Amino acid sequence: MIVKEKPKAFYDTFERKGAGQEVTHYCPGCGHGTAHKLIAELLVELDIQDRTIFLSPVGCSVFAYYYMDTGNIQCAHGRAPAVGTGIRRTHKDAILISYQGDGDLAAIGTAEIIHAANRGENMTVFFINNAIYGMTGGQMAPTTLEGQKTLTTPLGRSSGRDGNPIGMAEVMDAIKAPVYIERVSLSTPGKVLKARKVFKKALENQIDKKGFSFVEVLSPCPINWKMDPVEARSWMQEHLEPLYPVRNFRDGSHLPVPHDDFIPFMKEDEIINLLSSGGAIPDVKASESDLEQRVKIAGFGGQGVLSAGILLANYAIASGYEATWLPSYGPEMRGGKANAGVIFSNRSIGSPVVAEPNVLIALNSPSLTSFENDVEPGGLIMVNSTLVREEVKRDDVDVLYIPASEMARESGVLATANIIMLTIYLKYKGLADTELLRKVLPLSVKRKDAVDLNLKMMEKALAYYDRELA
Amino acid sequence: MNRSVIEADLCKGCRVCVNSCPNHCLSIGSEINRLGYQYARSTPEKCTACGICFYVCPEPGAITVYKGEAPDVK
Amino acid sequence: MSNKVKQLIKGNEAVIYGALMGGATHFFGYPITPASEIAHGAAKYFTLSGRHFLQAESEVSVINMLYGASGAGARVMTASSGPGMSLMAEGLSYIAGAELPCVVVDVQRAGPGLGNIWPEQSDYNITVKGGGHGNYKSIVLAPHSAQEMCDFTYQAFELADKYRITVIVLADAYIGQMMEAVEIPDRLLEGERKDWALYADKESRGNLVTSILMDPQLQSEHNWKLQRKYEQISREFCQWEELECEDADYLLVAYGISARVCHSAVEVLRKKGVKAGLLRPKTLFPFPEDRLKELASSARKVAAAELSNGQMADDVDRLCGGLCPTERLCWLGGVIPSVQEICDTVEGWESGVER
């Protein structure tokens, strides 16, 4: 009776350099084959082979997909935990095995492993630590021991020059989310059998959706250590294991499953409703006049410069025009200056940049200074005379001085000066349709409780126009 | 009789199994296999079919462990 | 008048509308100006609609999450800008090698280095010509309006799935930040099961997602297959728009925000009797090569107008060589040309006074 044989989760033959190969590409005495065998056996024992996706790293185990009869994905160097995250967010029931070496996980991929661990991604990471780069021929790894000679530390690793060996299990243990962290070794038969138990637990955690399990595996690399395979295993016990203690760091497998925020998958009509929840622009009426307005609204942050522009653009579209709105944005916004350019026209709009406005609405003094000279001859400059003391110097433009901030202050909300200026502008140009403005206003005001106040200010502005400017 | 059957052409001669067998059932022979290695051989007398050689062996298919009747090995 | 819902939204927000209706299921992102509104929109709408949004630790991780989720059969996307595109070069190369469908929106800003957040079109080479290592291409769509930000993203997922390729929506800071009226597509597109992807089930167990082929002969065959695919795309999918091109003496070639400025310039020039035209590629790969050659053969001059040091102009020069003289109108650093400036230049050609 067969009691131990090649696990069924291995392919029968390995398609490496042509079909029909039956041995691995690993060097004699390499630990990878042993770790592969433990995993393959557990995939069968735990009945998870069909739903396992094995993530191959870059390093000697880059070809793990030759061997593992599972779903396979080969990842860029160090990125397997990010790749696994992408898969995890797609298939909740997949079993994800991220199998990574010390160069892959502890050098180039430190960001990816730390953040996957920190998110508590439900995956099992097998970290093969053999203290050297194998695939590239024996260079220093982050886990290389002090004094250890490699191709890139020919005099022996010096902590002063090359840094210190890094204990990844200890690093993982500094992160809150991982459910299970253990370091094992493949140096002796007893430790190999112990490793099998640890591997099993790390996979069972994933099956139970407990979260992130991390197993560091001290593993021999006889070829690059320049030792025979038996000697390599003694060296592990004498040198690797004292620095990298073989022990459990954390076992939270008894803890409850972390919570899962589930939101149902919306259908077509639900998505359209969701995306339309900001409100649609009302039924369009045909534009009546042939015009192009290039409006620059400028002031400081908090004066509603951007939202006045949005209201104007919404209103223009509802009136049958094409419209563009282009804000100042980014760090510039943090300094307090804000401006928005709105163009509306009955023709299609080319450049959205308002370089030469035919309307300037200056809500504060610097805005007038900045943009006065840009205004097209024959254009309109509207000045918030409460805040702007100086007069417009241009004599080739129309000028309106409106005490907008004063009017807004009387109503208790200084930030409504924008709506006053805008209303008077539209009225002055013969473009004001009060009913349409009422309809469009809610689309342009972020705080819904501010809609009534803005409507009131609109009325106030219209009254002011009739009284002072008509 | 129990026995670990070693597939000669899948063995890379690393000696880890030889060194690990608690009952010293394994040894490296003098013959050279297709891969160019002197490969491991087993003797059944003291084998308990414990499976240690199977687990420490880095090759997936090099070792099969039988309890009781094992096939004849040349 | 359409029955579709019309809203005033930023180009960046329009991307999310197009994406969700185009069947995107996963968005992995990292904040960067001037593309961040796309991540904001995804965080809200992808999550609320039961799709998936995740903010990653870097663009390096973002693109690898795309690699994983796309390999697992999802319709995936991200959005970024220059510095993020540089970080994603590695992953995009792997995605090309493994032939995974994915959608990347690049809202271009000025470089090199940190540069600034104003528009440039200096990511042309790293998107149209590949960008990462190896011989590969992506389909590159170049929207010039908020509506096209929506529409191009909407169709990007179908294209990506059809050809197993990265589709890049190459916008710029102004196209992303500008608000315009946008109609939401009224039909939800959905991806189908892919026979090559990993679904963590028995049926897909034998599948392998990889970009490594150790045998030079196999890698050669794979790489030639990719080249044939790019040629097939060139034959099957190329889009552009023409404004006053038929009798144009002076043909401007421009995309994105530059095309908007050129559009205005052509209108002004035509009013003055100058026969200017605009060829606006909507796809940069494939580039409307045949049409450009055709128009160039009857033009007096062809000028590439772009916010770069002539990255697209190199292609225009190559295509128009021997057919007619070419010019380069280039702006750098986030500076946008005025309509007047372009008009003056073209009028200079018209009057025989070369710039």
Summarize the structure.
The complex is a heterotrimer of chains A (470), B (74) and C (355). Chain A is α/β, with parallel strands linked by helices and 470 residues long.
Could you please describe the fold and organization of this structure?
The complex is a heterotrimer of chains A (470), B (74) and C (355). Chain A has 470 residues and is of the alpha/beta class. Chain A has helices at 31-45, 64-67, 80-88, 102-108, 110-119, 159-162, 168-172, 189-207, 222-225, 229-243, 268-275, 305-318, 365-371, 404-410, 417-428, 434-444, 451-469, and strands spanning 2-4, 52-56, 71-74, 95-101, 124-129, 180-185, 213-218, 248-251, 292-300, 322-327, 337-345, 359-362, 380-384, 398-402. In chain A, strands 3-2-4-5-7-6-8 form a seven-stranded mixed beta sheet, with helices on both faces. In chain B, strands 1-4 form a two-stranded antiparallel sheet. In chain B, strands 2-3 form a two-stranded antiparallel sheet. By secondary structure, chain C is of the alpha/beta class. Chain C folds into two domains: 6-193 and 209-236, Thiamin diphosphate (ThDP)-binding fold, Pyr/PP domains (Rossmann fold, 3-Layer(aba) Sandwich); 242-350, Rossmann fold (3-Layer(aba) Sandwich). Chain C has helices spanning 11-21, 36-48, 59-71, 82-97, 124-128, 146-163, 173-177, 216-236, 256-271, 289-296, 311-320, 339-350; strands at 6-10, 26-29, 52-55, 76-80, 102-108, 139-141, 166-172, 179-183, 208-209, 240-243, 250-253, 276-281, 283-285, 301-306, 326-330. Chain C is globular, with a radius of gyration of 21 Å. The model of chain C has no long low-confidence stretch (mean pLDDT 96). At the A-C interface, strand 2, strand 3, helix 3, helix 5 and helix 11 of A face strand 1, helix 1, helix 2, helix 3 and helix 4 of C. Strand 1 (2-4) of chain A pairs antiparallel with strand 4 (63-66) of chain B, so a sheet runs across the interface.
- Assembly state of the chains shown: heterotrimer
Order of helices and strands of chain C: EHEHEHEHEHEHEHEEHEEHEEHEHEH
Number of helices of chain C: 12
Please estimate the helix content of chain C: 40-55%
Low-confidence stretches of chain C: none
**Parts with pLDDT < 50 across at least 5 consecutive residues of chain A:** none
